[in-house]
């Protein structure tokens, strides 16, 4: 369920908007009853660059704050908890990174966060360190107050003043090195915080194999919280084992056995 204060969802990316993308956006708008728009970058701008480029769209309606989630992150998104943390801990004016824990070897592949335990402020942030810094890693989710745009503007200006940056790359802003690292510690009065996931799963999708694993995690989550989303056995029909979701357009032979990881004797026919 969406947080009731979420008024719009913006998808930002460099990919051309295909018919499949347009159909997906339309379907999701109808399903969830919330405006969804895809904003296409003219070049790969990075997370911070995309936010800065579409700042007028993001700030339309004067939001108190806005979420940012990387599209390759799959987790049990703690949207409600993050919003409450942002309001109660930062006073609604700070910036929050979603964090999760990793082992020492895994942490070297992610942005690492050093936290002040009593306040949850970010004391230090380093992207993919060469040596171990912290087991708290950046999980690819954020809440920003509109004040973040003053830091994005500063980073954008610095790019254009740096003669070593090629013209074509000056509109790209790296969120980690240009924004999060300077904000850690006492940057902007110490307004950068970390909210650590206390439960649930977290993973990234970097290839097709990762997508299969992520689907398994989401099916397990449905089984726990939304069993109505999953297929069930019916008398005289196909057999279901484990957490299985079947698209309404699929037709499955009554002799089929369907498992979350394997399908045998199954016949699927799309009516789309």
Automatic annotation (TrEMBL):
Location of the Nucleotidyl transferase domain: 5-172
Gene3D superfamilies, per database record: Spore Coat Polysaccharide Biosynthesis Protein SpsA, Chain A
One Pfam match: NTP_transferase
Name this protein carries in UniProt: Mannose-1-phosphate guanyltransferase alpha-A
Protein's organism: Geodia barretti (Barrett's horny sponge)
């Amino acid at each position: 369920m969406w947080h009731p204060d979420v008024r719009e969802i913006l998808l930002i990316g460099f990919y051309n908007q295909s018919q499949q993308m347009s159909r997906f956006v339309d379907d999701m708008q109808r399903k969830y009853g919330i405006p969804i728009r895809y904003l296409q970058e003219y070049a790969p701008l990075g997370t911070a660059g995309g936010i800065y480029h579409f700042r007028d769209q993001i700030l339309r309606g004067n939001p108190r704050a806005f979420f940012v989630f990387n599209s390759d992150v799959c987790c049990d998104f703690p949207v409600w908890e993050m919003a409450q943390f942002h309001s109660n801990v930062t006073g609604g004016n700070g910036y929050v990174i979603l964090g999760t824990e990793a082992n020492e070897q895994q942490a070297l592949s992610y942005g690492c966060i050093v936290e002040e335990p009593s306040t949850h402020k970010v004391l230090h942030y380093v992207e993919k360190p060469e040596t171990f810094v912290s087991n708290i890693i950046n999980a690819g989710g954020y809440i920003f107050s509109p004040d973040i745009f003053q830091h994005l503007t500063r980073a954008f200006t610095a790019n254009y003043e740096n003669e070593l940056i090629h013209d074509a790359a000056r509109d790209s802003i790296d969120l980690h090195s240009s924004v999060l690292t300077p904000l850690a510690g006492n940057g902007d009065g110490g307004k950068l915080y970390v909210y650590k996931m206390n439960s649930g799963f977290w993973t990234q999708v970097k290839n097709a194999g990762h997508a299969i694993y992520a689907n398994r995690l989401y099916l397990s989550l449905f089984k726990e919280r939304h069993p109505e989303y999953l297929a069930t056995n019916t008398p005289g029909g196909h057999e279901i084992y484990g957490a299985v979701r079947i698209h309404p357009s699929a037709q499955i032979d009554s002799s089929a056995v369907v498992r979350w990881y394997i399908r045998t004797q199954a016949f699927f026919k799309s009516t789309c």
